[in-house]
Specification:
Low-confidence stretches: none
Distance between the termini: 29 Å
Strand order of the largest sheet: 5-6-7
Helix content: under 10%
Number of strands: 7
Structural class: mainly beta
Radius of gyration: 12 Å
Order of helices and strands: EEEEEEE
Strand content: over 45%
Mean pLDDT: 91
C-alpha cells in the first residue's frame, strides 16, 4: 500500500483514512483485517464487533 492511499484531501486539509495505534502513537497505522485491527509494529490487536 502506498502512503498516498492512507490520506485524502478535504477542504484543503489532510485527513487520515486509518486509525492510529494507541500504544505506538501518531504515525503508526492499524492494519484493517476482516475481523480485527492490528499494529504491525507492536502487535496490538482490536477485534471488530459482530452485529
Amino acid at each position: 500500500m502506498e502512503k498516498r492511499e492512507l490520506y485524502e484531501l478535504k477542504d484543503n486539509k489532510i485527513v487520515r483514512k486509518r486509525r492510529f495505534c494507541p500504544r505506538c502513537g501518531p504515525g503508526v497505522f492499524l492494519a484493517e483485517h476482516e475481523d480485527r485491527f492490528s499494529c504491525g509494529r507492536c502487535g496490538y490487536t482490536e477485534f471488530k464487533r459482530k452485529n
